[in-house]
Amino acid sequence: MNQHARSPIPPVTEADLRLLRIFRAMAEAGGLSAAEEKLGMERSTISRHLQALETRLGARLCFRGPAGFELTEFGRRALHASIAACEALEAVHQELNLARGILTGELVIGIADNCLSNPQCRMAETLERFRRHAPDVTINLSVGLPDVLVNNVLERRAHLAISGMPLGNTKLAYRPLFSEEFRLYAAAPGCDLADVRERRFVLVMRTNDRRTQTLAERLKIGQRAVAFGLEAVATLIASGGYVGFLPTHYAAILARRYPLVEVTNAETLRYTTQFSLISLIERPLPPSGQLFVRLFTEIERDT
Predict the structure, then answer these.
(1) Which residues are within 8 A (CB) of 89 and not within 5 positions of it... i.e. 6 or more apart?
(2) What's residue 4's pLDDT?
(3) Among 21, 16, 52, which residue's Cα sits nearest to residue 38?
(4) How many angstroms separate the first and last alpha carbons of the chain?
(5) How far apart are CA 71 and CA 75, in angstroms?
(6) β partners of residue 206
(7) Half-sphere exposure of residue 204, counting CA atoms within 13 Å on the CB side?
(8) What pLDDT shows up at residue 205?
């Protein structure tokens, strides 16, 4: 297959769109084997469709084999085009239904860990109201790390994300929602920051959390543990011998069962994270997404 062929790609047909959908599912799953369950196809069938698409387009889309799966540069461009094509067809379908007063389609939303426990977060109320307004829309909701949530929006795998990721990406629109205050906690009444400095406690490092990394360097802490997600952080703290940052509302819930207290003399280490509703500027939200944003902001404003 000539990767550098200069002949133009023929007009896209319905058969091509089907192949592009299969390619998109495989690319987003991360390989042929991972896409089997998602597509309901055997690996050999997916591979056959992929080869047919590569022949049709005249270029290799990905490298696949014992070394793993990786998109080529052309494959990355083709994936972007596949997503755009699927979205265009979905937009036509939604527009026709909207003309009949019906909202349809799938709305994909990513949300940060343990937002539900924050009394300021109105996600549950928004979903309840959204379901009454748009019962025919399928909600696809997932929990993830802030950078993963944002990347999913940037790569068009999600329409919206609710995250405490810092502002600054010019490709994204941020709608402020609520905030969370984080403090340094231990399950040992009387624990002082000096005890942490003297290595009587192990500092819990949350995955992709720069603040704990900065604190460890600042206090020259050698003993560290790594946790993925707030519940993992809380579990280590609750076991005793560990300190870590938790949102105050989450720590208050856990304190009913475990003796969680803020580390003494660590008040200057408190910090606040602003959570926002995040979307991609260049990707207009579908009608269902616009409705969700409006309902969420209305509920936030009224409470």
Answers:
(1) 17
(2) 47
(3) 21
(4) 61
(5) 5
(6) 227
(7) 26
(8) 87
- The whole-angstrom separation of Cα 91 and Cα 104 is 10
Q: Which amino acid is at 192?
A: D
Name residue, tokens 């406690």.
Answer: 201
Residue 228 has which token pair?
């993925």
> By the 8 A CB rule, do 147 and 298 touch?
no
Phi and psi at 267, nearest 5°, equal -60, -35
User: Cβ distance 266 to 183 under 8 Å?
Assistant: yes
Contact 130, 124 (CB under 8 A): no
pTM above 0.85, yes or no: no
For residue 292, name the pLDDT band (cuts at 50, 70, 90). Answer: very high
Query: DSSP string covering the chain, please?
Result: --TT--SPPPPP-HHHHHHHHHHHHHHHHTSHHHHHHHHT--HHHHHHHHHHHHHHHTS--EEEETTEEEE-HHHHHHHHHHHHHHHHHHHHHHHHHHTTT---SEEEEEE-TTGGG-TT--HHHHHHHHHHH-TTSEEEEEE--HHHHHHHHHTTS-SEEEE-PPS--TTEEEEEEEEEEEEEEESSTT-BHHHHHTTSSEEEEETT-HHHHHHHHHTT---EEEESSHHHHHHHHHTSSEEEEEEHHHHHHHTTTS--EEPBT-GGG-EEEEEEEEEETTSPPPHHHHHHHHHHHHHHHH-
CB atoms within 10 A of CB 219: 16
Strands 138-143 and 160-163: unpaired
Residue type, 295: L
Q: Which of 68-77, 181-190, 218-227 comes out lowest in average pLDDT?
A: 218-227
pLDDT in tens, 49-92: 889 988 888 889 988 777 678 889 998 888 888 888 887 777 77
Token pair, residue 240, equals 């005793």
Confidence (pLDDT) at 256: 93
